[in-house]
């Protein structure tokens, strides 16, 4: 669900414009909002479907996405425009996906193993 929320927020940012997004100043370009915003939102939705189906590639993509989001949020914090929600969401995603049971579920689904609980 956090990945879906992240993808939807990325899509909404594109439509709201640069005034509504504090980290728009970090990027200093309309290119992101015009071209990459919808692309990132679409990729996020595709990855969230992969997560729903326990695909290992989606786990890896989400970890990379969260890492990029954390780096960007830390940069925004450094320049004086903290994005606490982005930081918290990224940390929650990383902590959840690194739980042993969650990792096992992704590994087992990749190998076709079915566990009975």
Can you describe what's shown?
The protein has about 120 residues and is an all-alpha fold. The protein has one domain (about 1-110). It has six helices and no strands. The protein has helices at about 1-15, 25, 30-50, 55-80, 85-95, 100-110. Helix 1 (about 1-15) packs antiparallel against helix 3. The longest helix is centred in the middle third of the chain and has 23 residues, at about 55-80. About 20% of the residues are buried. The model is unreliable at about 25-30 (pLDDT under 50).
What layout of secondary structure does this protein have?
Blueprint: H1 2-16, H2 24-27, H3 31-52, H4 56-78, H5 84-97, H6 100-111
Helix pairs in contact: 1-3, 3-4, 4-5
How much is the radius of gyration in Å? Answer: 16 Å
- The geometry reads as flat
Our measurement of the CA-to-CA distance between the termini, rounded to an integer number of angstroms, reads 23 Å
Main sheet characteristics: none
- List segments where confidence is low: pLDDT < 50 over at least 5 consecutive residues: 25-29
Broad structural category: mainly alpha
Strand content: under 5%
What's the number of helices? 6
**Helical amount among residues, as a percent range?**
over 70%
What's the mean pLDDT score? 75
Order of helices and strands: HHHHHH
Total domain modules: 1
Structure summary, number of beta strands: 0
């Amino acid at each position: 669900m956090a990945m879906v929320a992240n993808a939807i927020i990325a899509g909404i940012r594109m439509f709201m414009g640069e005034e509504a997004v504090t980290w728009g100043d970090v990027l200093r370009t309309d290119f992101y909002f015009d071209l990459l915003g919808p692309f990132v939102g679409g990729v996020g939705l595709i990855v969230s479907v992969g997560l729903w189906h326990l695909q290992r590639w989606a786990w890896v993509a989400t970890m990379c996405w969260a890492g990029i989001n954390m780096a960007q949020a830390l940069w925004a914090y450094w320049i004086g425009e903290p994005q606490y929600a982005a930081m918290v969401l990224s940390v929650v995603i990383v902590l959840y996906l690194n739980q042993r049971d969650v990792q096992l579920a992704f590994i087992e689904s990749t190998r076709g193993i079915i566990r009975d609980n």
